[in-house]
Amino acid sequence: GIRDIGVTGVQTCALPIFSTDDDFRQRPLEFPDDLTALGEAGELVFCPVSRRVFGAMTRGIAAWDLDSGRLLWKRLLDPDGVYGRAAVTPDGRRVAVALGTRSLDLLDAENGATVSRIRMPEKLRITSLGWDPRGRRLLAASVVHATYLWDFDVLQSALAAEGVDAPDLTRPSEDSVRR
Fold it and tell me: What's this model's pTM, rounded to 2 decimal places?
């Protein structure tokens, strides 16, 4: 059954997980003081295949081990971020992060290393992000009632047609795997 039924939190306090395996007792997620550099708490999302939870904040993202509450990694992505949205691929390998700026970051979910950064023509306040079942298309909606779709198979093909030998934009690079 489902063990963890809820996650709540506020900017500078520990984020508790309520566990049905432990009579609904709270287990706090580690929240060191320097984590506040990532800004206010935003969206929390579960990894679909591992015992990790990701917290998109106004200026970055952090990852925790769900069982121990230990902070696994944190990344400052944009000091000008204004909110945080995140989505984890179905295979749990990548995390997409939108912070209300002109970029969308794709990170290696294991260590937070940047896989790709997509630059957008304008600042977009993304209200939701979601991956298709294969983890190859990313759908986003914004506050201006616009929907955006990034198809990484099409993008990869277009780059190849232009003679650009680009690595797969959604797969962790060799460098990020070694870190």
Answer: 0.78
